[in-house]
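On clarity, I found the account of how folds are encoded harder to follow than it need be. Since the whole study asks how a given chain folds, the encoding of that fold should be made plain. For the editor and my fellow referees, an illustration may be useful. An entry of this sort, consisting of the sequence and the corresponding backbone structure tokens, reads as follows:

:::
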Amino acid sequence: MTRKNKENEKKKKKNQHKGVYKRKYPSGGISYGIDYIHPITGQRIKKILKGVTSETDALKLRNIELTDAERGAIDKAYGLKAKTNSGSFEHMVSTYLKWSEGNKKSWKTDYDRAKPLRKAFKGKQMPDINTFVIEKYKMARAKVVAKVTVNKELILGSQVLKKAIEWKKYNGDNPFVKADKFKIKKAKKPGSLTPDQVTAIMNEIGHPVKRDMVEFDFNTGWRISEVRKLKKLDVDLEACRAWIMDPKNWEPVEIDLNDAAVQILDRNINRSKGEYVFCHLNGKPFKTNLYDVFKRAAVRAGITLPPRKAWHILRRTWASMFLQSGGDTETLRELGNWKDYSMPMWYADAGNSAHKRKVLNRIPKLGKKEENGTKMELAGKVVQLNGTND
């Protein structure tokens, strides 16, 4: 056998037992060990195997451990300690969720949306996630849940990596931002109620406080949770203002009120036996947002509500009435406690066709004398700004 053949044979034998090593002792004994990287924890496993007397047997046990490791076995079978890998996506999701719980009201939603992400990207490091693997995840999930749900999960993934970059736990790009979302046809705006419809719903509610809550909501556009949690100490009747102490965005804000809303507050403050303005007649606060109360009253009144809309339709109705009455968008944004204009303009229905035509008919008529005596004619002539006519 030539020297080259001997080297090839030696190399082949070495590769045949890759990941297996042997340790010789001064006494002449030999032990065999295995060496591999745990596919989930990223931990390097290197250990001597007791009772193993050959490289072939050690290799078999190594393959068995790797198979178990792929299934998530760590310490149960082999006494391995899971080593936390701060660079793993799964670890970063856990870190984000802890932050979310203390900073977001929607943290429970984040937990639900994180479950499929953690399962799909289990064992992957953040640098290993690219647009290709995200696309595979997207298409697989779309077979199980709605496309809009998949988009929301991808948005959460983007938020996780955004925080990882912000907290200097990851210095790469955010592939979730580059990944294409499913194009969802925008749903038709669910519309709003008329004052007569709101009155009809109120008339179907026997409880005086709950009836007042509907009227207050119609006049303020507050979220039902904000109405329910309003306390007497947060109301200033003389200034016609009230504080929303626990809003959706967690930023307390003082809101101006109209006369009707002030009268409702005054009536309920005098009637209430507890610290809350709107509460049970015995003074105890409402523990739910009373969706069924509003829905059942609407059914009895013969009014069909948009899907998944109950008290919240009053917020849209208030915004619509405000714009139809000549209110401006900036004041609407402030009174509705929105951070930007996108949401108030989405909520606000500018009016029905009759109202829109009424606004359109305010445009001055051409060829008709206005109050200042100016006449605009369309007799085939075009008035030039330089004073000459064609």
Q: What stands out?
A: Residues 89-178 form a domain with the DNA polymerase; domain 1 fold (CATH 1.10.150). Confidence is low (pLDDT under 50) at residues 79-85, 376-390. DSSP finds 16 helices and six strands in the chain.
